[in-house]
Automatic annotation (TrEMBL), chain A:
Main subcellular localisation: membrane
Record organism: Brevundimonas alba
Sequence ranges assigned to domain Cytochrome b/b6 N-terminal region profile in this UniProt record: 14-224
Protein name, entry field: Cytochrome b
Oligomeric and partner information: The main subunits of complex b-c1 are: cytochrome b, cytochrome c1 and the Rieske protein.
Residues that coordinate or bind a ubiquinone: H216
UniProt cross-references to SUPFAM superfamilies, sorted A to Z: a domain/subunit of cytochrome bc1 complex (Ubiquinol-cytochrome c reductase), Transmembrane di-heme cytochromes
Parts of the chain that traverse the membrane: 42-70, 91-111, 126-148, 160-178, 198-215, 250-270, 308-327, 339-363, 383-406
């Protein structure tokens, strides 16, 4: 799949002139004609969707920065001015705010796709690791951006999250003061958060280039999970354009419909009402919650009774993703052929959703109201605290125990020799062959 | 080397050792070229760090931010049984005029198995035990605790459920430390200077 022969032939004089000096048209043409596994399903369209999300966020963000004022006295009012007075400002801001949520919906599905089909396994470890870096940068960018409107949730979210750094023994406090630029969250903090919020998307864009470079060097994974042998390239791949530009394009249209429903009909559904109250450093909102896409990690933080260890657990939840390629001992990539692991994967997805749900609840409230309960250690058993701990336990169990253990002990189903075999009689070699494909391998 | 021009002969003897230790790939000992590479690399790293430091340091609190570090407060503004919240260095400070019953309760618990042991007398100024001055910032994650709530009559943090007593000491919940007593002094009987 990688290093395929260039088929670009410059036609006009100016193309020939350019091609011998800066072969940028050749680069684009080769990119569009990349041999792509012909069995990619719709779970493979989120890469293109994510590229679009990044472009939307950068484009709307640059416009918003022209109207926004990063000053504690003026920030909230400048955002309200964008909403009320700037031409089309409300739509631009709603697109940016909901765009962050859409970005995370797409990235979570993209990551789960990679997890299910084993896209992180050799020879694609670097694609996955660069992807984890992008995910981490996305979380940082989203957090910084949420602070900028300088509402109550902005301010207190920043207070709570920066305080996490203060939990580091010895150096935590000086780092905290350095990060905030003063003894408390104030104008210096807002200014630098704005600066970094503008910077990080371009760092993400740089990482996307590395992500694609690694992808096109190692070659794309596919739902069957096998590497396509060199001599099968002609049979098992199709050029990226027009086959996957069309497929990605259709998925993008569907995704934009979802995006538009949020922007035009329920723009505040994913936000928090308290962020329309100007920041007040002397009064905490009754219930501080992060944006929905951070909730699973916030839940993991709160599951641990110790402040510092809670922070360690939260960062480990992301950190464990980086070593996933070496935790998984299975020789089979796609979970399509790993029935045991597939069950654990479905539980993992449910646990992730459950952690998000727990992150939004008060730890002490009962999970089942009215059910009799008893005190277990530091909380009632029938409380979100204990449900949260149970789910956090499974989150880490999945990566640290199940990934190495199941890979060693399971018996995977037989893997087809080619990606054509499960769907075409005779593996797509000869349509006259009478041998039927095994029904259990149908995807 | 055999056919080397005569003109080079004078230099050749001087270069021989250099040529020998640079030319042999099996020679593991650092040679003079390695030394130059290491020295140049170290100088570049050092220069980079020295150039980066002012940029990093500029993110520390600026002079005008530090200049806002003291504030005076008139204690006659707070009534017995109440607290006044003032803003100091961007953070809330609680000035609480405690009732005799609240002081009594705090003193009674001085040795009640505290998470962050401190006596009530340590947390106020001698002769002014009715006034408790603490930072209004929960030592867990920095929320502002609610006055008069919680199991110990002091403060209750709504964010993650920490209970503080009438001396501002942590009694229950995830917070690790007592509410911080800032540096302050009485400039007169009714005025304090915080910071």
């Amino acid at each position: 799949m990688s290093d395929h022969e260039s088929t670009y032939v410059p036609k006009t004089g100016i193309e020939k002139w350019l091609d011998s000096r800066l072969p940028i048209v050749r680069f684009g043409a080769d990119y569009m004609s990349l041999p792509t596994p012909k069995n990619l399903n719709y779970w493979w369209t989120f890469g293109g969707i994510l590229a679009l999300c990044l472009v939307v966020q950068i484009a709307t963000g640059i416009i918003l920065a022209m109207h926004y004022v990063p000053n504690t006295e003026l920030a909230f009012a400048s955002v309200e001015r964008i909403m009320r007075d700037v031409n089309g400002g409300d739509i631009i801001r709603y697109t940016h705010a909901n765009g962050a949520s859409m970005f995370f919906i797409a990235v979570y599905l993209h990551m789960l796709r990679g997890l299910y089909y084993g896209s992180y396994k050799a020879p694609r470890e670097m694609i996955w690791i660069v992807g984890c870096v992008i995910f981490f940068l996305m979380i940082a960018t989203a957090f910084l951006g949420y602070v900028l409107p300088w509402g109550q949730m902005s301010f207190w979210g920043a207070e709570v999250i920066t305080n996490l750094i203060g939990a580091i023994p010895l150096v935590g406090e000086p780092i905290l003061i350095w990060l905030r630029g003063g003894p408390a969250i104030d104008n210096a903090t807002l200014n630098r958060f704005f600066s970094l919020h503008y910077l990080l998307p371009f760092v993400i864009a740089g990482c996307v280039v590395l992500h694609l470079w690694a992808l096109h060097h190692a070659g794309q994974n596919n739902p069957v999970g096998i590497l396509i042998p060199k001599d099968r390239t002609a049979k098992d791949t199709v050029p990226f354009h027009p086959y996957f530009t069309v497929k990605d394009g259709f998925a993008i249209v569907l995704f934009l419909i979802l995006f538009a429903i949020f922007v035009f009909f329920m723009p505040n559904a994913l936000g928090h009402a308290d962020n329309y109250i100007p920041a007040n450093p002397l009064q905490t909102p009754a219930h501080i919650v992060p944006e929905w896409y951070m909730l699973p990690f916030y839940a993991i933080l709160r599951a641990i009774p110790d402040k510092f260890l809670g922070v360690v657990a939260m960062f480990s939840a992301i950190g464990v993703l980086f070593i996933l390629p070496w935790l998984d001992t299975s020789k089979v990539r796609s979970m399509r052929y790993r029935p045991a692991m597939r069950t654990f994967f479905v539980i993992f997805v449910l646990v992730g959703i459950g952690l998000g749900w727990c992150g939004a609840q008060l730890p002490d409230s009962p999970v089942v109201p009215g059910m009799p309960s008893f005190q277990l250690a530091d909380g009632m058993l029938n409380s979100y605290l204990w449900l949260n701990r149970l789910l956090t336990f499974y989150y880490f169990l999945f990566f640290i125990v199940l990934m190495p253990l199941v890979g060693l002990r399971e018996t995977p189903r037989p893997i087809p020799a080619t990606i054509s075999e499960p769907v075409l009689p005779g593996g797509g070699d000869a349509m006259t062959s009478a041998a039927p494909a095994s029904p259990e391998k149908k995807g | 080397m055999n056919g080397a021009p005569q003109g080079d002969a004078a230099n050749r003897s001087g270069d021989e050792s250099v040529a020998a230790d640079q030319g042999d790939p099996n020679n593991k000992d650092p040679n003079r070229r390695d030394f130059i590479h290491i020295a140049a690399g170290a100088a570049a790293v050092g220069a980079g760090a020295m150039a980066a430091w002012p940029l990093v340091n500029s993110m520390n609190p600026a002079a005008d931010t530090l200049a806002l570090s003291t504030i005076e407060f008139d204690l006659t503004k707070v009534q017995q049984g109440q607290q006044v919240v003032i803003k100091w260095q961007g953070k809330p400070v609680f000035v609480r005029y405690r009732t005799p019953a609240e002081i009594e309760r705090a003193r009674a618990d001085d040795h009640a198995g505290l998470k962050d042991p401190a006596t009530d007398a340590d947390r106020v100024k001698p002769g002014h035990q009715q006034y408790l001055v603490v930072l209004g910032s929960c030592t867990h994650l920095g929320c502002v605790p609610t006055f008069g709530a919680g199991d110990f009559g002091g403060w209750f943090c709504p964010c993650h459920g920490s209970h503080y007593d009438t001396s501002g000491r942590i009694r229950k919940g995830p917070a690790p430390k007592n509410l911080v007593v800032p540096t302050y002094d009485y400039v007169s009987d009714t005025r304090v200077k915080i910071g």
